[in-house]
């Protein structure tokens, strides 16, 4: 009986290891939420999205019939990785609260692909602006530090 219990415990422990394609451990450096708000405006996100912290436009001035609301506990974003993915790959998972015909066209998501113009810094800041608006699972932030470049000293004795 002890062997069976031990085997079961080992299976449980092994099953808790993150898969190779897991987002566990992934995190961007700390961003600037106010710069993220500016990026939200700069990239035209306000043309289709409503988010807390940005004044809504008149209903008839959005590019969609009804703007897509970002944030909140029922937004379908549960993890930090899902939030980052929704910015860089918007067709990955479409807003469940909206009719498919409203948020897609023949090429997929109506959201323009901004990956060629979005800088990494803008992405970091945009995520810093959006993350507090979602009820995402807490995750440990990576502690980024600066490394000194070490250049090996040349051995002048060998040349002589």
Automatic annotation (TrEMBL):
Domain Cytochrome c, chain residue ranges per copy: 31-134
Signal peptide: 1-19
InterPro entries from the UniProt entry: Cyt_c-like_dom (IPR009056), Cyt_c-like_dom_sf (IPR036909)
Keywords: Heme, Iron, Metal-binding, Signal
Protein name as annotated: Cytochrome C
Record's keyword annotation contains Iron: yes
Superkingdom in the source lineage: Bacteria
PROSITE patterns: CYTC, PROKAR_LIPOPROTEIN
């Amino acid at each position: 009986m002890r062997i069976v219990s031990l085997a079961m415990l080992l299976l449980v422990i092994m099953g808790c290891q993150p898969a190779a394609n897991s987002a566990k451990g992934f995190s961007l450096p700390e961003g600037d939420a106010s710069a993220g708000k500016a990026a939200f405006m700069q990239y035209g996100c306000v043309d289709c999205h409503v988010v807390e912290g940005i004044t809504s436009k008149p209903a008839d001035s959005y590019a969609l019939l009804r703007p897509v609301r970002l944030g909140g506990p029922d937004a379908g974003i549960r993890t930090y990785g899902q939030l980052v993915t929704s910015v860089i790959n918007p067709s990955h998972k479409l807003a469940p609260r909206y009719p498919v015909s409203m948020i897609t066209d023949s090429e997929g998501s109506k959201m323009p692909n901004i990956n060629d113009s979005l800088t990494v810094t803008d992405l970091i800041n945009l995520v810093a602006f959006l993350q507090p608006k979602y009820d995402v699972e807490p995750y440990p932030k990576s502690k980024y530090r600066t490394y000194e470049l070490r250049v090996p000293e040349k051995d002048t004795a060998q040349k002589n």
